[in-house]
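This part of the workshop introduces the protein records we will be handling. Getting from the letters to the tokens is the skill we practise here. An example says more than a description, so a record of this kind follows:
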Amino acid sequence: MLVAFMAIGGITAPVSAQVPRVYGQGAAASGMGNAFAAQADNPSALHYNPAGMTQLRGIQVMGGLSLVGGTTDFRSPTGITATGDHDGTVAWPGPGHGYITANLQDLGLSSFGNVTVGIGITTPFGSVMRWPDDSQLRTLTTFTALPLFDIKPTFAYQVTRDFSIGAGADIYTFASFFGEGHAELQKISPLSGSKIEFNGKGAAPGFNLSALYTALRNGDGQPIANLAVVYRSQATLHLDGALLANGVKVQDATTTLVLPQVITGGIALWPVRNSEREWKIELNVDYVGWKSVRSLDIRRTDGTVIDPQPQNWKSTYAILVGTEYRWLQLERFPGWEISVRGGYTNQQTQVPDVTFNPGVPSADLHVISSGIGLICRENGSFLGLIPCGSLGVGPLKPKQIGVDIFYQAFIYEPRTIADVSGFRSSVNGRYDSTIHAGGISARVSF
């Protein structure tokens, strides 16, 4: 009883769950700094702009994985240092994505008009961050994880030749095969020295709406200027679980996590677009409504607050710029396409100094992106030996097979926290964070 009492008493140091957005939900888009809403011409359109799915023919499948690693270095005003990482060299499991889309008109269901349906699974929010159990920050955080899924049943409809709309559901939930299958927050009690853990899981609904408009086309009818808008709704996730001390359950507990609304606007221009090559440049602007995150209070199941945790985050904007150059006709590699990509993202921090928590890096951020893409059409061949169109069986013979690879460097501006007093004064100091991410997506069209 004494240990339990001291453990609960130690909870008054905040256990914060920052939830930075995982922008990358497709290697091609990630290579362009995730500026993809107005292009949206592969199955990851299901995430970036569902209205773009009307550009996809037949049945298309895409899946991929990213690996994220890096460190945050902390130095206190007195010179004490500590280093946090992503639970190892890279976070595992890493963020993943999977999509399948089907154009109903291409499948002979012409009575529906140009309708494309699809379903996707992404990891849209979350992080894994570990700090040493003996660091100055141990009473604030030693480990955070949010292995959250978004299941996305979605459809798109081409209203006119130049205008399409999309809509879908976002079902946020956890799964036992991904990480621990629940959100997890750990720290060391300042009173008892016990390892305190809160874990919880739940599900929440949301929705998305989008539109894609082609303002200009070239002589071949291909878009050379697209405009896009995407709205992702807010969702309220109730995390029900338990409070533990040294691995022993103390009591049931719960908290509420608000996933913010996101509004994206984008424009894509193709200065070059013909049968031999394409060059696209795109600008996206994201508004993220983080101001809806007012608190992350830990409560008993009867509603009594165990640990008040005001957050008072602020809404932010992100600027995403990307480009892609494609070679469509290669004399030495007939039937192949090659793309090179680059991009830049600038993202503001949403966390004010007074509620800063080192559980996740939080500072103004610059992201440098690069990537390549390879597509083998059905008339191409792998290593000059195996026709790409013969790799399937029967009706599942592919019309094209693609692989995309990306790399991103997340460069956080140094952040200094000062003048935080009381039990949170240990957060004062300088934080320097650099994160690296790389990943791959494979896609097949039938």
Residues 1-19 have pLDDT under 50 and may be disordered. The chain has three helices and 26 strands. The two ends are 63 Å apart (CA to CA).
